[in-house]
Design goal:
alpha+beta; eight-stranded parallel beta barrel; six-stranded antiparallel sheet; binds (2S,3S,4S,5R)-3,4,5-trihydroxy-6-oxo-oxane-2-carboxylic acid
Length: 592
């Protein structure tokens, strides 16, 4: 699915702004046909934003169930004879949408886009009512999973991931128009041939059998480099300006559908020419060994929760540059497409992750609340869950396949991986990912509970991604013992002969808390903890990356291990530096 854009033949209309809003705790709206009228007894809600923190109300914040959003929009008069599409960049965690009284689309999964061709249900020059029934409940067949428990105080939503279950319409909603004959998809892969670049492209189109195709490649200055007239082919780029970490150089591939001289559809796809591969214990970009520095991040902001915000997007990337980070992981779900587009342009490298987090009943207790479930079983995560997970992988790759910034797919974070059931669950999912993208390495993020020798899933990955908390969750406050234990485990993993990226290491740190001798929770301890980790990484050849947990403090469910959320940020939630930010800056920028 192509992201909506304006071009010489395409036009978008943003539906962002204030929408009518209503929680539906009894689940009565569907049978009462709330979509067929102005939403009764509604309030107002912001799109894009999570709804949770907007209302000053605990019931709204913790609400789970059906949620109604509704807006009205005038369909532009000029869209006569055009194909008209309604596009949601995401709705968390699932949605059904009506246009006036007609149900047009349903979608499962909170972090990937969906759309409906609504041409037959609207008329240019008329106002149309758009109603979205969002549902944010997590259950065993959702990704991420959760469960609703009956408690003496009523029903409660439980889940096993360490971030707040923000929900709503987090990203932009668009109406857009194209010609009935239109481009539906484009797939780009790139290669290098000495100093020259190679761009392989495939264009898919609908209703275009009698049309010609033209693709025009332009450089960043807009100068034409080459053209072609085949729906799929290879373009050669003499003396290519490569896309590289720190150098987000992009070419523009314009795809045109032509009837004679008339351009019927035009779509612009940016292209970064680069190669990625795993070579023994090296992670190689453009033939050069690459070392990841950076963070696991979250989409998490005051007031708007997981709502996308361009000011924070640009600011966060400025902070990445300030600190000398070259990469981050989209922990623990696909981020807004604006983020990926910006990473392409800024030359920031991305590990792109699905929302498969919390598939591990061995974790938790104090952090995530009561458990008592088995991760993989016919009643819990089962083959239906795996199909939803497979679809999440396909949708992530379909959405992000053309981003040069994305160099590695992460199909899950810290699932149970030390059991036969886990091995059976995951093996086919690696196949799904490889089939969807044969060009990029694939992996998953391993948890401390499945150390080397016990993990049965890491065998399927091209790289090893490890989350480890020596000196925090184990050997707490004893960095000497932590260093020994950590090095011993890492050496064992290094024996596998694959590149190792440390995708999480971190210590909760309450900003402003200081002790002369660093104690857990102080700014001093976070610095000493990171130093210890870095000593270990620097001694192990196979370590090709370090991503601190986390870029910034973020909101979680409440619990005795969390003080106003997870405080492992190197920056506070409002993006002020802790002492560790300066320490990392010195290391990553190699400044004294
Ligand atoms: C992890 C998880 C991450 C948590 C983090 C922590 O291993 O992947 O989601 O937030 O640990 O701080 O406990």
């Amino acid at each position: 699915m192509l992201r909506p854009q304006d071009s010489s033949t395409r036009e978008r209309k943003s539906l962002n702004g204030l929408w009518r809003f209503r929680l539906d705790s009894e689940g009565e709206g569907r049978s009462a046909r709330w979509f067929s009228q102005p939403l009764p007894e509604s309030g107002q809600m912001v799109v894009p934003a999570s709804f949770n923190d907007i209302a000053a109300n605990a019931t709204v914040r913790d609400y789970f169930g059906d949620i109604w959003y509704q807006t009205s929009v005038w369909v532009p008069l000029g869209w006569q004879g055009r194909r008209i599409v309604l596009h949601f960049e995401s709705a968390t965690h699932r949605a059904t949408v009506w246009v006036n009284d007609v149900e047009v689309v349903s979608h499962e999964g909170g972090y990937t886009p969906f759309e409906a061709d609504i041409t037959d249900h609207v008329a240019p020059g008329q106002e149309v009512r758009i109603t979205a029934l969002i549902n944010n409940t997590l259950h065993w067949q959702s990704i991420p999973p959760g469960v609703i428990e009956d408690t003496p105080a009523g029903k409660r939503q439980r889940y096993w991931h360490d971030f707040f279950n923000y929900a709503g319409i987090h990203r932009s909603v668009w109406l857009y128009a194209t010609d009935p004959a239109h481009i539906t998809d484009v797939t780009i892969t790139t290669d290098l041939d000495g100093a020259n670049g190679v761009i392989n492209y495939t264009v898919d189109a609908e209703g275009a059998d009698d049309l010609e195709i033209k693709v025009i490649l332009r450089d960043a200055e807009g100068t034409e480099v080459t053209t072609d007239t085949r729906p799929s082919g290879t373009l050669n780029v003499p003396s290519v300006h490569k896309w590289a970490p720190g150098d987000g150089y992009l070419y523009d591939l314009e795809i045109q559908l032509l009837r004679g001289d008339t351009i019927v559809d035009s779509y612009h796809q940016s292209v970064g020419v680069r190669t990625v591969k795993v070579d023994g214990i090296r992670f190689v970009i453009n033939g050069e060994p690459f070392y990841f520095t950076g963070f696991g991040k979250h989409e998490d902001l005051p007031v708007i929760g997981k709502g996308h915000n361009d000011a924070y997007l640009v600011h966060d990337f400025e902070l990445l540059k300030w600190i000398g980070a070259n990469s981050f992981r989209t922990s623990h779900y696909p981020y807004a497409e604006d983020v990926l587009d910006y990473a392409d342009r800024q030359g920031i490298v991305i590990i792109d992750e699905t929302a498969a987090v919390g598939l591990n009943m061995g974790l938790g207790g104090g952090i995530f609340g009561g458990q008592g479930y088995q991760t993989f079983s016919p009643e819990t995560a089962n083959s239906a869950t795996r199909e939803v997970h497979a679809q999440a992988i396909r949708e992530l790759i379909a959405r992000d396949k053309n981003h040069p910034s994305v160099v590695l797919w992460s199909i899950a974070n810290e699932p149970e991986s030390d059991t036969e059931e886990a091995e059976k669950y995951f093996q086919p999912l690696f196949d799904v990912a490889r089939q969807a993208d044969p060009t990029r390495p694939i992996g998953f993020v391993n948890v401390m509970l499945a150390p080397h020798g016990k993990c049965r899933v890491s065998q399927f990955g091209d790289v090893l991604m490890l989350n480890r908390y020596y000196g925090w969750y184990v050997n707490t406050g004893d960095l000497e013992a932590a260093e020994l234990a950590w090095e011993e485990e890492l050496k064992a993993w290094a024996g596998d002969g694959k590149p190792i990226i440390i995708t999480e290491y971190g210590a909760d740190t309450y900003p402003g808390l200081h002790t002369l001798v660093g104690e857990p929770w102080t700014e001093e301890y976070q610095v000493e903890y990171l130093d210890m980790n870095h000593r270990v990484f620097d001694r192990i050849d196979a370590v090709v990356g370090e991503q601190v947990w986390n870029f910034a403090d973020f909101t979680t469910t409440s619990g005795i291990m969390r003080v106003g959320g997870n405080k492992k940020g190197v920056f506070t939630r409002d993006r002020q530096p802790k002492a560790s930010a300066y320490a990392l800056r010195r290391r990553w920028r190699k400044e004294p």
